């Protein structure tokens, strides 16, 4: 389990490890969700929808109040590092842990303009 500060500190070291790997599209800090799969996803309090743009745009979801770190991770929650990649072959090339902070790899599709 890592605190937010520990994860932020380890992020620079992880970024150095994955520099040069073609297909890495993001390195960041993310909450480690520990709720079971049988439970519904966490809902953030006080969500509201902005009015749709009259030019035909889609409605935008806006948080109506500030959310604390504890509300995102849950009580005793911790943080992980997350690497987003476009190539599943990169999963084994990313370390599982940096400076005692777990690393999660997420395989996404290629990022393309609309």
Descriptive report:
This protein has 114 residues and is of the alpha+beta class. It has a domain at 4-36 and 68-107: GMP Synthetase, Chain A, domain 3 (2-Layer Sandwich), CATH 3.30.300. Helices cover 18% and strands 28% of the residues. The chain has two helices and six strands; from the N terminus they run αβββαβββ. It has helices at residues 4-18, 69-73, and strands at 24-32, 47-49, 61-63, 78-85, 97-98, 101-107. The strands form two sheets. Strands 1-4-6-5 form a four-stranded mixed sheet, with helices on one face. Residues 32-58 are annotated as: Disordered.
**What are the secondary-structure elements, in order, as H or E?**
HEEEHEEE
Using the coordinates above, name the CATH class of the domain at 4-36 and 68-107: Alpha Beta
What percentage of residues falls in helices of 4 or more residues?
10-25%
Radius of gyration: 17 Å
Q: What is the CATH architecture descriptor of the domain at 4-36 and 68-107? A: 2-Layer Sandwich
Number of helices: 2
CATH topology of the domain at 4-36 and 68-107: GMP Synthetase, Chain A, domain 3
Strand fraction? 25-35%
Q: What's the count of strands?
A: 6
How would you classify the helix and strand content by structural class? alpha+beta
**How would you describe the shape?**
globular
* Low-confidence residue ranges: 35-39, 44-49
Taking the sheet with the most strands, its summary is: 4 strands, mixed
Distance between the termini: 38 Å
Averaging pLDDT over every residue, what do you get?
A: 76
Strand order of the largest sheet: 1-4-6-5
